[in-house]
Amino acid sequence: MPALAIRAYTATTAVGRGRDAQADALATRRGGLRRNDFGAAPLPTWIGRVDGLEDSPLPAHLAGWECRNNRLAWLALQQDGVPAVLDALVARHGAERIALVVGTSTSSIGASEEGYARAAATPDGTLRMPEDLQRPIVHTPHSLGDFLQHATGLRGPCVTVATACSSSAKVFAQAARLIQAGVADAALVGGVDTLCGSVLFGFNALGLVSAEPCRPFDATRDGLSLGEAGGFAVLEGLAPGEDAPLQLRGYGESSDAHHMSAPHPHGLGATLAMRDALARAGIDAAQVGYLNLHGTSTPANDAIEARAVAALFPDTLHASSTKGWTGHTLGAAGIVESVFALLALEHGLLPGILNSATPDPGCGPQIRFDNARRDIAFAMNNSFGFGGNNCSLVFGTGAAA
Predict the structure, then answer these.
(1) Would you call 79 helix, strand, or coil by DSSP?
(2) Distance of alpha carbon 344 from the chain centroid
(3) Is the pTM of this model over 0.90?
(4) What is the rounded distance in angstroms from the CA atom of residue 268 to the CA atom of residue 75?
(5) Which residue among 158, 294, 363, 391 is the active-site one?
């Protein structure tokens, strides 16, 4: 596929706001997980919570979209000069030529939970949402996309992708197709998901939540830690003869449709997504310097992904899961971990795995617990969602052949 320039990128997670905070946390191995303090009756687990959302209301002109998820979207959007880059693109192409493609898993469902909890009976016995939550758009999956369209003023195609935990990885692929089809000249992509009761207690009901900080690829791992995050990247077609420093080089998508929540036992969908991403990028597996794994810390997910990686990549690959820093941020995982892959390209910082100490003997040598530093030409990100929604992305430096 034709490469796309990455003009800006950012993430806000439990370790801090903006990419410098992410890079510092990765380098110093400073994690963001804390004992769960979310909700009136906190589930006994650990979470990756973004500080300051409770004290950061939306600007008055955006009050109609007020909710935790959109607060985090607005906060994340202000970091790392993204608004200035968007302004420059609007001046160059026009707001109608810039697409907005964002991913989420649960969107603003926390506001819906609050609305039902505070609903009051009317004289005829029906329940009515409280006045401050009678805002229909906030209670839909497209809440995030609609909010960001109004917040940014972009007027190109506007799409909210909701494919569970692959949502904000798939946005890169969808934006690439829009640009390559000539529908848009550039795109703001990203994803946001916030903590809520449905997420915490829903995943716990599936038996997937650990009572301790998650330990990806550790022999003793017993479940995930949930988190919240928001992040964005700005993509644009390369100008003739241009060699942008950071680029989207390829993507691969698959849907193994094996089970509602479990991956295919042989990793067929994961393997297909990784192979297709490499093929679109026009590179061999041996050229990838860093792979950010989906690595949720559940027994099945990690084992299946590790086998798929060992079958495809040489032993020299540095692969890791960064969920020990942020928690599993669901629909925001794709963008957050793409930011980590881009940091690896830009700074040569290859993160290891936090909290894990005992390597699973079933995992290959590609899985690295310790950080490393070296210059690389290509980095990859895996994001795999419920229902077999898989996406792999390849990023490269401008100098990469």
Answers:
(1) coil
(2) 16
(3) yes
(4) 38
(5) 294
Given the residues 139, 196, 328, 391, select the one marked as catalytic. 328
Q: What's 94's DSSP letter? A: -
Average pLDDT, consecutive stretches of 10 residues, N- to C-terminus, the chain (401 residues):
96 98 98 95 96 96 96 98 98 98 95 89 85 90 96 98 95 98 98 96 94 98 97 96 95 83 73 97 98 95 95 97 98 98 98 97 96 98 86 90 59
Say whether 294 is catalytic.
Answer: yes
Distances (CA, A) of 131 to 64, 108, 114, 144, 375: 12, 17, 12, 21, 55
Question: How far is residue 354's CA from residue 54's CA, in Å, rounded to a whole number?
Answer: 28
How many domains does the chain divide into?
1
DSSP label at residue 244: -
Which one of 67, 158, 165, 196 is the catalytic residue? 165
Q: Which amino acid is at 1?
A: M
d(C-alpha 44, C-alpha 199), whole Å: 14
CATH number of the domain that 266 lies in?
3.40.47.10
Q: How many residues are recorded in the chain? A: 401
Which domain range does residue 49 map to?
Answer: 4-397
Question: In the annotation, is 391 catalytic?
Answer: no
